[in-house]
From TrEMBL:
Protein name: XRE family transcriptional regulator
One MF annotation (Gene Ontology) recorded for this entry: DNA binding
Species this protein is from: Nitratireductor mangrovi
Domain HTH cro/C1-type: 12-66
GO CC annotations on file: cytosol
Membrane is among the record's keywords: no
Length: 481
């Protein structure tokens, strides 16, 4: 195998400048011509083994210094350019290497500036949420990408689209699927659009869940997906074809600001419509009430996943046929929150969803188990929460599968209607109606929470000054007054 060539021109130039040498003086010390040293400094010639040894003996330069100096800078720059705002700016990592090697001080400054930007964006978001919680609207916000706009729009409004529910019922009536919804959808796609559905192996379709090839009229589904998710992907494609006018009208009603945001909203509405087809409103709402909102019972009865049944529970807000107004939150094991929805809008102001003490984070320690908990906010509001891990697309032996956790919640006042209330401390098996329920004290998020003595606190509150008394140390790393 050929040895890797070492181009270290910028580093050689910095060593020379640090020692106050001209190119001619350094070239004489190394026994090479000034023109050759000039080519090395411009990365037009690699360092030879003899030259590396000469640098080590004459100028006391460690050979490792010539190869590994930019490693940390490259990793930090990679973090910067992974940001969605910048992710499309660089075609590859070679430019990162060139920046880190040619201008390390500039690289460090870019990283410092980016981290300051992220910190200020987080603080601005915290401030905006705080003002909203106090009933004072503000136009201030962090940098909003199209995906942020879509998420915020869907989180603020009720998770119910009456027009799509009606279209789904008409579609189901026409399909008449019986006990084979996936077969009925495949037959309809073939009959109406000439589309053939095929499930492809991972090696053939390594990067996609679903891909529709308009030229060959084939819909490809990844074998990584569970049978429930395969059904949903097929239903999404069918609904987007069948309900294009209704979906378009709902998108217009959302008043999004860009074509990319509207495209993302179209996918979210297609997902909603697919759930409406897989779990028809009337049948699902009636079954949910009879089963006292037992998600496992519902997923078995309708042949769907736990996540799909839980998601559908947040949609039951048809006038005259409402269900318990559930809200949901999905996080990954790093704590990133990437899906929030609510029957009446996600209760950001009252609940928040950013507290590390919530059971949704503890769920990763007990995969597949349902954790039931009552939680109390600083203002006294109480919620019943249910948390459970979800399995993502299946990976190969050498891959690490994605695992997320879902939190389903509602106001504690609905506990008598929900089967899970029997698992609460103080519960009596009949909804805990007879006595008070012991609740875990949580907050909206560390930066907005003023609970003192919290062992789980990860950040100081933006609303209180830090305590700097050297004679007193509190339980948290972020003491405040």
């Amino acid at each position: 195998m050929a040895e890797q060539k070492i181009f270290a021109g910028p580093r050689i130039r910095r060593i020379r400048n640090a020692k106050g040498l001209t190119q001619t003086a350094m070239a004489n010390g190394l026994g090479i011509s000034p023109s050759y040293l000039n080519l090395i400094e411009r990365n037009q010639r690699p360092l030879t083994v003899q030259l590396i040894l000469k640098l080590a003996s004459v100028y006391k330069v460690e050979p490792e210094e010539l190869q590994a100096e930019a490693g940390g800078s490259i990793a930090a720059l990679r973090e910067v350019f992974a940001d969605p705002l910048l992710s499309d700016e660089l075609p590859g990592e070679q430019e990162l290497v060139e920046i880190a090697e040619a201008a390390p001080n500039v690289s460090a400054a870019v990283v410092k500036l980016y981290r300051a930007y992220r910190e200020q964006a987080d603080r601005l978001t915290d401030l905006s949420e705080l003002l909203a919680r106090e009933g004072r609207a503000t136009a201030l916000s962090a940098a909003r990408l199209p995906v942020d706009e879509v998420h915020e729009t869907f989180e603020r409004r009720p998770n119910h689209f009456a027009r799509l529910e009606e279209e789904a019922e008409a579609f189901l009536s026409m399909l008449d699927p019986g006990d084979d919804l996936i077969g009925a959808l495949k037959a309809w796609l073939k009959r109406e659009y000439g589309v053939v559905v095929r499930v492809l192996p991972v090696a053939t379709m390594p990067n996609w869940r679903r891909r529709y090839d308009r030229h060959s009229q084939r819909l490809f589904i990844s074998e990584r997906l569970s049978p429930f998710d395969q059904l949903r992907e097929i239903a999404i494609e069918a609904c987007l074809m069948r309900m294009s006018v209704a979906v378009g009208a709902e998108i217009e009603a959302l008043k999004l600001s860009s074509d990319e945001a509207r495209r993302l909203a179209r996918f979210e509405l297609g997902r909603y419509a697919a759930h409406a087809v897989m779990m028809p409103y009337g049948a699902f709402q009636s079954a949910a009430q009879r089963a006292r909102y037992d998600v496992d019972v519902l997923k078995s009865r309708f042949g769907v996943s736990f996540e799909q049944a839980a998601n559908r529970l947040t949609m039951l807000q048809r006038p005259g046929a409402q269900g318990v107004p559930f809200f949901m939150l999905e996080v990954d094991n790093a704590g990133y929150r990437f899906r929030k929805a609510g029957a009446q809008g996600f209760p950001q102001a009252r609940f928040g969803g950013g507290c590390p003490k919530l059971a949704v984070h503890a769920a990763f320690e007990q995969p597949g188990r349902i954790l039931v908990e009552a939680v109390e906010m600083p203002d006294g509001a109480e919620f019943l929460t249910i948390a459970r891990t979800l399995e993502g697309p299946q990976g190969a032996f050498s891959e690490r599968p994605r695992r997320t956790a879902l939190l389903l919640g509602c106001d504690i006042g609905f506990r008598d209607e929900i089967v899970y209330s029997a698992a609460l401390p103080g519960g009596n098996g009949q909804g805990a109606k007879a006595g008070a329920v012991a609740a875990t004290a949580v907050g909206p998020a560390c930066r907005l929470c003023e609970r003192t003595g919290c062992l789980a606190r990860a950040e100081p509150p933006v609303t209180r000054p830090l305590g700097l008394d050297e004679m007193v140390t509190g339980l948290s790393a972020f003491d405040f007054r």
